[in-house]
Amino acid sequence: MTMAGTVLITGVTGQDGTYLSRTLADLGQQVHGVLRPGDSAGDNPAIMHECDLRDGTDLRRLVATLRPDVIYNLGGQTSVAASWDDPLDTIATTGAPVAVLLDAAWHLHEEGHPTRLVQASSAEMFGNSTESPQNENTPIAPVSPYGAAKALAHFLVGSYRQRGLHASSVILYNHESPLRPDTFVTRKITRAAARISRGLQDRLELGGLDMRRDWGWAPDYVDALRRVAEQRHPGDYVIGTGQTHSVADFAAAAFAAVGIHDWRPLVRIDPALKRPADPTEQRADSRKAREQLAWQPTVSFDGMVRRMVEADLAALDSGAH
Description:
By secondary structure, the chain is α/β, with parallel strands linked by helices. The protein has 2 domains: 6-175 and 218-239, NAD(P)-binding Rossmann-like Domain (Rossmann fold, 3-Layer(aba) Sandwich); 180-213 and 244-277 and 299-317, UDP-galactose 4-epimerase, domain 1, CATH 3.90.25.10. The chain is built from 10 helices and 13 strands. The strands form 4 sheets. A 7-stranded parallel β-sheet has the order 3-2-1-4-5-6-11, sandwiched between helices. A two-stranded parallel ribbon has the order 7-10. A two-stranded parallel sheet has the order 8-13. Helix 6 packs across helix 10. The protein starts with 5 loop residues before the first strand and ends with a helix. The model has no long low-confidence stretch (mean pLDDT 94).
């Protein structure tokens, strides 16, 4: 079942928001997006509305005016590392706006307009979990301001769901694509591999190679968001591949994609780049999503890395960077 109607996406110009807006527009839905003042919409098909997520009054007014059938909240701080630099802003952009959106959706619900809300939660909420893999019932114990902000939003969604709102949390594990900014270590790696292969860079500096993550293909995860919105009943869903790889694995795959197999001499470890209190491993148990949403990943780890490297090589060849 594909829902028609009007949707509102926060974080619409980010990686996930861009893929989601394109998907929903292709399905015939009217897509509206929240655009930070001063940002560029690019080639995003959404109808843009400038609004600062920290401005609760303006955000509430936008929801009341548009009366969307579905709200996808993908906005806010997206970097764990950056959340340590400004934890207050992380809470203000990643946690607090969810309270505004839920309350605005609840008012529409009371008026007889059953707005649904889908929250993009994060595996960072689990922190250094003693359980592996993690599922929807794993205790939430974040170890970063970003994880804590996502946990606040997650608990708020659960509270409004108990109240009667169709509100769901989709607990997303790491997911990548050519749209990922190079402030993320994954894109930093693929871009460096591309540049080194072209003789434009000498080495890649990383904070470490041992951290393990459950990495997947971003469009697959966006597809899960859409499927959750279309469910008859709301709920929480863990989305991930169930397989983990280390940063070293990611680097090896990226350099292999450009024909470099002896990659370690090209990598320098800089302890200053290591994030504080970083979970060593996260792995998803997405059985609920696979059974109830008929969702499954479609792109392998090596395929995902290769696509990112190929995009970086194409950008270099076109003179984009």
